[in-house]
Amino acid sequence: MARTPIISGNWKMHHNHFEAIQTVQKLHYRLTDDDHEAVEVTVHAPFTDIRSIQTVIESDKMKIGIGAQNCHWEDKGAFTGEVAPPMLAKLNVSHVIVGHSERRELFGETDETVNKKVKAVLTHGMTPIVCCGETLDEREAGAAESKVEGQIREGLSGVLGNHVAASVIAYEPIWAIGTGRTATAEDAQAMCAHIRSVVRSEFGGDAANAVRIQYGGSVKPGNIAELMGQPDVDGALVGGASLEADEFAAIVQYRNH
Ligand code: PGA
């Protein structure tokens, strides 16, 4: 089954709403209709930017998907500082990153909260980008596969197969994030294939064939083509190299390299 590649820019805590508008406009200018046919593109802006970029994306009919980096799992309530999934859905957010390693390591997210968030995002008609990945110590101890497998089994626990099929999983080895150190294409392929086999055993063949798996961790214009050439790598979650429209566009246009 052909899976449409998906390349997502994770801006993290960068770009105020003016910078966000400029970046989206420049990205739109750089990308062609052919690019949008070939690759789904999303940008995951800080919450304070989302309304601003929604306005320009919709008024100029840009084919750039509006993403968020996190959300709470409840629809509303006394949760100071949190943002609810229906608030994002109302802004036409299509994709929400869930369980990024920075949120797990710095903000105490667990597989259990990831699972609640995944279900809440799906309930509100949005697509979760569910992150997983091992530390360098875990990789060197030969525990990378079991770590990632546990994150996937627990993060997707109780989710319906058709919802898993429509979801995105991002494999991001923690040692490769923001370090300039990318997993080799072979290592990325091996883990993405393993993730697909875990999905197959838990949710069946249809879900495994349909779910899109991104690689993330120091993705750049110079390494994207080789990563995208791997059969189980369906896209990329791009941090640093997504902040500049030119660089991110060059990644989206990996087919031309
Ligand atoms: P990076 O970040 O591309 O800057 O390594 C990737 C991510 O954290 O999603």
Q: Name the shape in a single word.
A: globular
Tell me the span between the first and last alpha carbons: 25 Å
Listed once per kind, the bound small molecules are:
2-phosphoglycolic acid
In CATH, the topology is named TIM Barrel
Outline the biggest β-sheet.
8 strands, parallel, barrel
CATH class: Alpha Beta
Proportion in helices: 40-55%
Proportion of residues in β-strands: 5-15%
Assign the CATH superfamily: Aldolase class I
Low-confidence stretches: none
Q: Count up the domains.
A: 1
Quickly give the CATH architecture: Alpha-Beta Barrel
The strands making up the biggest β-sheet line up spatially as 1-2-3-4-5-6-7-8
Number of H- or I-type helical stretches: 13
Q: Which structural class fits the helix and strand makeup? A: alpha/beta
Question: Secondary-structure element order, as H and E?
Answer: EHHEHEHEHHEHHHEHHEHEH
Number of strands: 8
Mean pLDDT: 97
Q: What is Rg?
A: 17 Å
Quaternary organization: single chain
Summarize the structure.
The chain has a single domain, classed as Alpha-Beta Barrel (TIM Barrel). The protein contains 13 helices and 8 strands.
Tell me what the structure shows.
This protein is of the alpha/beta class and 257 residues long. It has one domain: Aldolase class I (TIM Barrel, Alpha-Beta Barrel). Helix content is 46%, strand content 14%. It contains 13 helices and eight strands. The longest helix has 19 residues, at 185-203. It starts with 5 loop residues before the first strand and ends in a 5-residue tail after the last helix. Residues 10, 172, 177-178, 216-219, 237-241 line the site of 2-phosphoglycolic acid (PGA).
